[in-house]
Amino acid sequence: MKKIAINTGGGDAQGLNAVIRAATLSAINRGWEVYGIRRAYQGLLEEGGIMPLTQDTVRGITHVGGTILGTTNRGNPFAMPVTLPDGTTKTVDRSADVITAFEEHGFDALIAIGGDGSLTIARDLAKQGLPVVGVPKTIDNDIEGTTLTFGFLTAVDIATDAIDRLHSTAQAHERVMVVEVMGRHAGWIALFAGVAGTADVILIPEIPYRVDKVCQKVMEREERGRRFAIIVVAEGAYPVGGEPSFTDPEAQRLGGVGEVLARQIGGATGKETRALALRHLQRGGSPNSYDRLIALRFGAAAVRCVEQGEFGCMIALDPPDVASIPLEEAVARQKLVPIDGDVVATARDLGVSFGD
């Protein structure tokens, strides 16, 4: 009998629970025992951090957002924060402790669900001998080797719905509306939602923008009698020769570019300009049907990899099938928007400005 563990790390994304359910049921149907590690890898180092996963545990969670295992952005076992007696904190490498605890629990394999950071941790643990299968998760869709990551299309749906709703109020008040969406280094959400929501300007990290070009587009619409404009900007977008905006520079927490742009556009054009940052709304709620399907397929495929003894790999969508690729390949670089790709070309053909 195999005894496997599942964890979820990094930011949450719609579909995490669907992966957990698929992996759990696939393993139980093979006669295996399944356990969940709470809060990424921290549960291995804490009392009560391991929970059994049964058919009852995962019943009815496919459509539920978040993760029943909990998650954290600060669970890197190679740099875990430790509080010292004087109240200060430092980071220490506890990877050996994690592997020891994993072995003491008698686990035969780990299914690690996460984004680029979590998958990098999984790769490094695999190099130390941990039998791990990675499942890619991020609404940013920036994982190399997989056509899509679950959560991405749901985030696009949420952003597109917001853009749709802003059209009517922007037109009624003859305003410029700047919608800030997530996307640290990759502008997939901004691009897909911007095109689907018929935005006038789309700004993404892959194409540094010029504010004067953005204002030029706004005024071109004004001259044609279209006295409003919709601008979609990824949180990691930045001007030519400039840097991204941070809500917390010390922690390198991106955000605020929408507000900066709104002030600049309003000052340059005289147009009333408002900014709206969707932020974590894009992570919340139920996954759409396609993200549920991807997540369920990924979870089942991960168990098949465990069954075949295929470790140090990541599940990937390679339409029409699901395949596996080496973790090393998956985290070698981020998957960015190709600026000469079809979707960008389509947007330009439709008259969308990228501020360049």
From TrEMBL:
Instruction: List locations, semicolon-separated.
Output: Cytoplasm
Cite the EC number: 2.7.1.11
Q: What are the Phosphofructokinase domain coordinates in residue numbering?
A: 3-305
Q: Which residues bind substrate?
A: 138-140, 175, 182-184, 235, 274, 280-283
**UniProt keywords, alphabetically:** ATP-binding, Cytoplasm, Glycolysis, Kinase, Magnesium, Metal-binding, Nucleotide-binding, Transferase
Q: In which pathway does it act?
A: Carbohydrate degradation; glycolysis; D-glyceraldehyde 3-phosphate and glycerone phosphate from D-glucose: step 3/4
One of its GO biological process terms is: fructose 6-phosphate metabolic process
SUPFAM superfamilies according to UniProt: Phosphofructokinase (SSF53784)
Binding residues annotated for Mg(2+), in chain numbering: 116
Q: What class of enzyme is it?
A: transferase
Q: Which co-factors does it depend on? A: Mg(2+)
> What Gene Ontology cellular component terms go with this record?
6-phosphofructokinase complex
What is this protein for, i.e. what is its function? Catalyzes the phosphorylation of D-fructose 6-phosphate to fructose 1,6-bisphosphate by ATP, the first committing step of glycolysis.
Its family? Belongs to the phosphofructokinase type A (PFKA) family. Mixed-substrate PFK group III subfamily.
Please report the name of this protein according to its UniProt entry.
ATP-dependent 6-phosphofructokinase
* Organism per entry: Candidatus Kutchimonas denitrificans
